[in-house]
Specification:
Blueprint (H helix, E strand, L loop, with lengths): L27 E3 L8 H11 L5 E3 L7 H24 L15
Parallel strand pairs: 1-2
């Protein structure tokens, strides 16, 4: 099975909105039947792309979703701290790269 992994390293702008006003509003994620990869990477990715999740809906076998959910909560807090620090220090939060061509 091939996995498509985006190359964020070369991006000059974030791949998603980082401010809560514009962030994705998905609150529930159904992952029944999904077998995640590395729990840390999955949690980190979900905290970036879906920062407002309030509920993961998974079924048996649990695989690593319980661990991912716990890690996700910590990553969301960490990302919020990063944004707050940037704003307090006069940094500009850029729009996602894919939106720059629309201006």
């Amino acid at each position: 099975m091939r996995r498509g992994v985006p190359d964020f390293a070369r991006m000059q702008r974030p791949p998603v909105f980082l401010l809560s006003v514009d962030a994705c509003r998905v609150r529930r994620l159904r992952v029944a039947g999904c077998i995640p990869g590395d729990p840390e990477r999955v949690a980190s990715f979900l905290s970036l792309v879906l920062p407002g999740l309030q509920h993961f809906n998974w079924s048996l076998p649990l695989w690593d979703w319980d661990l991912i959910e716990k890690r996700y909560e910590k990553f969301v807090v960490l990302r919020a701290q990063e944004v707050n620090w940037a704003l307090r220090h006069g940094k500009t939060i850029r729009r996602p790269e894919y939106l720059q061509s629309e201006r």
